[in-house]
Specification:
heterodimer, A: 330 residues, alpha/beta, Rossmann fold, seven-stranded parallel beta sheet, two-stranded parallel sheet, 11 helices, 42% helix, B: 859 residues, Luciferase, domain 3, 4 domains, 13-stranded mixed beta sheet, eight-stranded mixed beta sheet, 30 helices, globular
Chain lengths: 330, 859
């Protein structure tokens, strides 16, 4: 099978490409900067550029659309350009090219407005209630992708929650960096139950979705390890895996929210670069439960995660022992 | 024939949730005055029904009240639920109708819509008298009568206060008609509060002042005094209830009703002594809204009518033999029979004296006016007085209501109200509590009490006076073959305490089962530090002693007190609760070698009432080196079910839950396997290694639950198996393993998991005192969470990486799923009576809050 992976320089993109190549697929990749991946056909360009996308997609049977603008820094226009326009361009190009399997990588945040999520189901994407530029733009993108589902092209949206693993700069990198600086703190008691996804499992679910696109067509499915953990325990494990001491600091939830609110406005007002140390979004993510019902996902994809959290932590420690993550500081 | 033009005519209701438009119909009748009237009726219109259920609402409501009953009706049964005239969506008649008119209206309606064939009436509130008036005219067709929160007569008791208040001239119009206050207030009494759409449903036909005229008329028609127009009609209905003694009856009551309180239930119980009774303890006036009345209605009809009442009567085992007397003191026995510790010394009563005292008391009870079959609540700490009173009650054919202090105040209060004793025999503090809480029953005080206090507490007699009164009276009273003998209560660790009724033969069978199982003979002497068994000495025909302990706090028995009690009668047997044993072991260090010596002569230690830890038994075994240590398994409903010795328990280990041993002689134990969602089926199996609800049957099991017809119905299978609510499995060697309670199963995506295995694994981690395993999250996708109580207390809910890793390691060793979280609680809530059964439901609520990221609640 010939598969196009957009956004292959991300952690998930890289892992997915490696797994596809392993099983003998022909892989094309599309992203702005060279991804330095061997054995792939690389097209450089933006997902919002129809010409580049058309070139990359030619001759493909399947598309996995990973590319997205993530994080909390940036203007709405920037998020909309990559996430909404980009998805529309990729979806149209796929339809034109006669692609019959389309896996769209989405996010659980597209359907939820910030209350505690306890064994929650996926629910429909809602650009109105989603919070923040990222979630709103991804919600629009998911609607566009699933809207293109047809008998000619089966579209599945997967929403992996909180991906981590060796080489991860988003979550692991930040936690470790802050722990080194002694700036890592729990929000509240640290007991909020959080779902997360070990990187190999996220890639495995995407591959399962390519195979099961027919059965899962039109669905939005949340992907996680199915092993929710208290955020404090997960963070402790990651920190310990890097040979550091777990944090002792605790920020009460209201302070975290207030701090996030102030920091967001300061950063905006002063046009500071990078991310504020705390945002309301982050305070909420770290302070309230986010875990999901995995039954439908597993049933439709006929997939179960292969790497448990405990084994994932061991892999993290092994990767750390093998050599420091050079890009950890981001 | 005419129709007054100025009044609104009947209509069909608007679309309302819970009501199918197809049920709604308008039915014309000509009333007794020759006027055309139109009823609105909910009617399932089943052709050629096997049975018709006629539902009669009260005030202020309408047929909406019966929507669940209608929805759950079997296909062969027709349900008819009219709105009275001027009520609901029926005609507004203008003229106020009295009780006789309403009965007549209903009669004409039932003819008009063709109710012929077998009928069961179902009524609520003032629909009760109307339904009974109708039923009186249709006795031939009447198959059953169901009444909920209603009244027919009230004897000498005053009218419901709230009704009297609503009838005050200044109030009546304002609350019943000018405003919808009467309906709103009636609904407000419900708990939990009905949803907004249900409130709207009740209010739908009463939106305007004109439409509410019927509510006012209905209230005005309640005969508060004998001159009232409807008084004679009501009186006749009341009198005619004697005609219903062959008609199956069910009385279902929300006990928190401020209008029709329980005295109206008791009044109906007196008039319909054959009636089945079910009290919904947390339900209020609108019992159909607060409790699953519809399900109970259909279960009752199914059991009492469709199957002619055969269900539930079959025990499936031999009936126990009738017992002439439970008092079996051997002829010629003259040593101390019962010994107790009081204040600073031992007191004993010799066998002949005890027997004489029991006879005097029994006779004295009768001269006091206590009639056979009366209920006598005893609130006396274990010892001579309690034992004498209980045996005297049994001799006199009275029903002993055992309300022990270990229930806690709230459950004690509920228990007394549920049992509704005619008499209350108790120590002075119990008399004070009885007055303070308004407990029913005339009072007999045990011990001395100041005469003025006695008067103010309305104490009728003292126990001594009763005994004097019985002296010299030797008339023997035969209470019948097998009278009900006792009502005890479950500990209420998994819901409100339930009353459990035993007949005398069943108590006899229980005594025989214990005697046979533990080979108890005349040479044995018993230390009874466990409330129910403290009474069994005279029944077993052996001497017993109650050690120095506060029975309401079982954890107060010290090693010293136990040793002294053993020495006092040279005891061979010790019965105690796990909490008492824990404190004995904890205080064993204070024992001198002389104090240890008597413990060394004990041959058998029994520990019952709640799960006992292996380590605790081993520590106890060190104190009583010659004794076999046994833990009987059972429940208030059936005890013993199984038994295991410490030696056996150590041999089988704890890997699969808590092994409670093999079933004892004469007890059947089976499993109702669980489905994927954790619901037990109804096919008993004894296949090994199948997880499910444990069901048992034995001749020494209970007679039935008390005033809990529906609970009894649901807990007993057609073949007489008692559903224990415990989850477990049988192994290949016939051992029974318990994994927790059905309602405590963790309902994960991988199927139901029993908590005890998880708890045992966690309790192997050093520093852990106690553990509770609970499922958190939506049913079917719950995750297991282990909550610890640690020696090292901390207010932080996460116990830290070392403890967490150790717990996860033990889980993996035990073959458990890795828990989503390991949490620490400052103290895990346990039941009051045994200080041992973990309240997993409360733990789950706490864990859910903590894991949601909300601020944890402290206990």
């Amino acid at each position: 099978m010939r598969v196009l992976v957009t956004g292959s320089s991300s952690l998930l993109g890289r892992m997915l490409v490696a797994r596809l190549l392993e099983r003998g697929d022909t892989v094309s990749v599309l992203q702005r900067q060279p991804a330095h991946l061997a054995g792939v056909e690389e097209v450089l360009g933006s997902v919002a550029d129809p010409t580049a996308v058309r070139r990359a997609i030619a001759g493909c049977d399947a598309v996995v659309h990973v590319a997205a603008k993530v994080g909390i820094v940036g203007t709405w226009a920037e998020f909309a350009e990559t996430n909404i326009v980009g998805t529309r361009v990729v979806v149209h190009a796929a339809q034109e090219a006669g692609v019959n399997r389309f896996v769209h990588v989405s996010s659980p945040s597209v359907a939820h407005s910030g209350s505690a999520l306890i064994g929650a189901e996926a629910g429909p994407a809602s650009p109105k209630s989603a919070r923040g530029h990222y979630a709103k733009s991804k919600a629009e993108a998911e609607l566009i992708a699933l809207g293109a589902n047809s008998s000619a092209m089966c579209v599945v949206a997967l929403r992996p929650h909180l991906i981590w693993g060796p080489g991860d700069i988003q979550l692991v990198g930040r936690i470790v960096e802050r722990a080194r600086q002694g700036r890592l703190a729990y929000v509240g008691s640290g007991a909020a139950l959080i779902d997360s996804t070990f990187i190999d499992n996220a890639a495995g679910a995407l591959i399962a979705a390519i195979g099961r696109a027919g059965s899962a067509a039109g669905e939005a499915l949340i992907v996680s390890n199915g092993e929710p953990r208290p955020i404090g325990e997960l963070v402790d494990s990651i920190v310990i895996a890097h040979g550091l001491t777990p944090p002792r600091l605790r920020v009460p939830r209201p302070f975290a929210f207030a701090g996030g609110w102030i920091a967001e406005r300061l950063w905006r007002a002063l046009r500071l670069d990078g991310e504020p140390p705390m945002t309301t979004f982050l305070a909420e993510q770290l302070g309230t439960a986010h875990w999901f019902d995995q039954r439908r996902t597993r049933e439709l994809l006929r997939w179960t995660p292969h790497v448990s959290i405990d084994r994932g932590i061991v892999r993290l420690a092994a990767a750390h022992a093998a050599g420091p993550i050079s890009s950890a500081a981001g | 024939m005419s129709r007054p033009p100025s009044h609104e005519q009947a209509t069909r209701p608007p679309a309302l949730p819970g009501i199918e438009p197809a049920w709604s119909r308008l039915v014309d009748i000509v009333d007794t005055r020759g006027t055309d009237r139109t009823f609105h009726v909910l009617d399932t219109q089943v052709p050629d029904p096997l049975l018709t259920v006629l539902c009669v609402h009260g005030n202020p409501s309408w047929s909406y009240l019966w929507r669940d009953v209608i929805a759950q009706a079997p296909p062969t049964v027709r349900v008819v639920a009219p709105d009275h005239l001027s009520m609901g969506f029926s005609d507004r008649t203008g003229a106020d109708r009295d009780l006789a008119d309403r009965i007549d209206d209903l009669d004409r309606l039932s003819t008009a819509i063709g109710i012929d064939g077998p009928v069961v009436t179902l009524a609520h509130d003032w629909g009760g008298p109307i339904s009974l008036g109708w039923a009186r005219r249709h006795l031939a067709a009447l198959q059953g009568v169901i009444l909920t929160n209603t009244a027919v007569g009230r004897g000498d008791a005053p009218a419901p206060r709230l009704i009297s208040a609503a009838r005050l001239p200044a109030v009546l119009g304002a609350v019943t008609q000018r405003t919808p206050l009467f309906i709103r207030a009636a609904l407000r009494m419900s708990s939990p509060q009905p949803d907004a759409d249900v409130r709207d449903g009740f209010l739908a036909p009463y939106r305007t002042r004109d439409r509410r005229a019927g509510i006012r008329a209905f209230v005005a028609d309640i005969p508060l005094d004998p001159t009232h127009a409807s008084a004679s009609t009501l009186e006749r209905i009341e009198r005619d209830l004697t005609l219903f003694t062959d008609v199956p009856a069910l009385l279902m009551w929300g006990t928190r009703d401020l209008v029709f309180g329980e005295r109206y239930l008791h009044d109906l119980e007196d008039r319909l002594p054959h009636a089945d009774v079910h009290r919904f303890v947390d339900a209020a006036h609108f019992v159909t809204e607060d409790a699953p009345v519809a399900a109970a209605v259909w279960d009752w009809i199914d059991e009492r009518l469709s199957r002619n009442g055969v269900t539930g009567s079959g025990l499936g085992v031999d009936e126990p033999q009738p017992v002439a007397s439970l008092l079996t003191v051997p002829e010629g026995a003259d040593g101390p029979l019962v010994t107790e510790w009081r204040e600073h010394g031992w007191r004993s009563v010799e066998a002949p004296t005890f027997v004489a005292r029991v006879r005097c008391l029994a006779a004295g009870f009768r001269t006091t006016g206590i009639a056979s079959g009366d209920r006598v609540a005893v609130m006396i700490p274990p010892g001579i007085d309690l034992t004498a009173v209980v045996y005297a009650c049994w001799e006199a054919g009275l029903i002993v209501v055992l309300v022990d202090g270990g229930l806690g105040v709230r459950n004690m209060h509920r228990a007394v109200r549920a049992a509704d004793p005619d008499w209350l025999v108790g120590i002075p503090s119990a008399m004070v509590a009885a007055r303070a809480f308004g407990w029913p029953g005339r009072k007999i005080v045990v011990g001395e009490m100041d005469p003025r206090l006695r008067r103010s507490l309305r104490v009728q007699r003292s126990l001594r006076e009763t005994e004097f009164a019985g002296e010299g009276s030797h008339e023997h009273h035969d209470p019948g073959d097998d009278p009900p003998a006792v009502v005890g209560f479950t500990s209420g660790s998994t819901g409100p305490s339930k009353g459990v009724r035993y007949r005398r033969s069943q108590l006899g069978a229980q005594r025989d089962a214990i005697a046979a199982l533990y080979e108890i003979g005349p040479t044995d002497r018993l230390v009874a530090a466990f409330a129910p068994f403290a009474l069994y000495g005279p029944a077993l025909g052996i001497a017993s002693v109650v050690p120095d302990l506060d029975i309401t706090r079982p954890g107060t028995l010290t090693g010293r007190a136990l040793s002294a009690a053993v020495e006092q009668i040279d005891a061979t047997l010790v019965f105690l609760s796990p909490a008492a044993m824990a404190n004995v072991v904890a205080t064993a260090g204070e024992l001198t070698s002389e104090e240890r010596a008597p413990l060394g002569r004990v041959r058998l230690v029994l520990c019952a009432g709640a799960p006992v830890r292996l380590g605790l038994l081993q520590a106890m075994a060190d104190l009583t080196p010659s004794a076999a240590l046994h833990t009987p398994y059972g429940m208030t409903e059936v005890l013993p079910v199984a038994d295991i010795s410490l030696t056996q328990r150590m041999a089988v280990g704890e890997a699969h839950g808590a092994c409670v041993g093999r079933p004892v002689e004469g007890v059947g134990v089976r499993i109702h396997p669980l489905d994927h969602d954790g619901r037990p089926g109804s096919q008993p199996t004894n296949e090994p290694d199948v997880l499910g609800e444990v069901v048992v049957r034995a001749r020494h099991g209970k007679d039935s639950y008390d005033r809990l017809w529906w609970t009894e119905h649901r807990s007993r299978t057609a073949d007489g198996w008692h559903r224990t609510g415990d989850v477990g499995h049988l192994d290949g060697d016939g051992f029974l393993w318990i994994g927790g309670r059905v309602q405590h199963l963790m309902l994960t995506a991988d199927g139901p998991l029993a908590p005890v295995v998880y708890e045992h694994a966690a309790e192997r981690v050093p520093g852990v005192i106690r553990a509770a395993a609970v499922g958190v999250g939506p049913v079917g996708t719950q995750v297991p969470v282990v909550v610890l109580e640690m020696h090292q207390r901390s207010r932080r809910p996460l116990p830290g990486p070392e403890v967490t890793d150790a717990v996860r390691h033990e889980m993996a060793e035990a073959g458990c799923l890795s828990p989503a979280a390991v949490l620490a609680m400052t103290s895990i809530p346990v039941d009051k009576r045994h200080n041992s059964k973990v309240d997993r439901t409360r733990v789950a609520v706490w864990a859910e809050k903590v894991l949601a990221g909300k601020r944890p609640v402290r206990w």
